[in-house]
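Entry 12.
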Amino acid sequence: MQRARNSQARKKDTRDKIELGGLIVKAGLRYEKRALLLGALIDLNRRLGIDDGERARLTAIGNEAFRHDSK
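Predicted 3D structure (tokens):
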């Protein structure tokens, strides 16, 4: 039973990571250096913690990008 739960958790974790990697590709950042991507994400996390307006602005940009994909 425990083994099955661990396997499911690992599969979900793997799926989440693949989806997150897909977002990097979708954003056009596939060939950027890992250090740059990590730095950008760390900076974004800090900014989101202090600026709700930035969260809303970036969410709107992301929603628009997803809408363009479905066409």
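Annotation: The helical segments are 2-26, 34-50, 52-69. The mean pLDDT is 93.
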